[in-house]
Design brief:
The chain is built from eight helices and eleven strands. By secondary structure, the chain is α/β, with parallel strands linked by helices. The chain binds uridine-5'-diphosphate.
Length: 240
Amino acid sequence: MANGVKYNRVVLKLSGEALAGDQGFGINPPELKTVAKELKEVHDLGVQVCIVVGGGNMWRGVTGEKLGMERAQADYIGMLATIMNALSLQDALEGLGVQTRVQTSIEMRQIAEPYIRRKAIRHLEKGRVVIFAGGTGSPYFSTDTTAALRAAEMNADAILMAKNGVDGVYSADPNKDSSAVKFDHLTHMDILDKHLHVMDSTASSMSMDNDIPLVVFNLNTPGNIMKVVRGEKIGTTIEG
Ligand code: UDP
């Protein structure tokens, strides 16, 4: 068990946006390095870290659909985007001396391992960070749902939902509504009932059904990943 931490095994959900930096698109290596440094600190404490990366910095299936593509085809392109992000993150972490493995839900053996649950657990036990890429491997799903699924499969203590520029869950969009209030604690059912935009409903139901706590926090504040892992009161915790 890691020292002074609340969560020993976590699934960190990083949206594609988190890797894009100010340009809001593509991959920004300095931004990757910043995230990787924070992850290394947590990893050095002995916390077992899995990462699920999104792909929205490059492509989202729904966007393709709106532009006339077949949805499933557009979603596969999105899944490939998540694999590019995973390889970038792997590069940044390994550059800091953190051992990693990328596992993809769609086989791509020349560049990554296929997703094998028991192998992923073994990597964690050996102190390697495991990066899950390719989402669930099926169209019509999201990487939020992937995070809930992998958290259940890995028997993780929590999902850390890193947001860009938002420090938790609010009653309304704080950028548009000055009366919006931040919640410290919610249940998964609250999220579904109140239609709060934390993750999509498939991901929320999956987290609820499998009793997985979720912490929503601002990735842009340095030191936040560590604070969440230590159980400090930041962001919004969703459980029960
Ligand atoms: N995607 C998918 N199935 C999955 C996960 C992702 O089809 O299980 C596709 C979907 O098109 C999605 C894109 O990959 O829009 C990128 O993932 P996501 O939008 O979740 O990334 P994020 O918003 O976290 O950057």
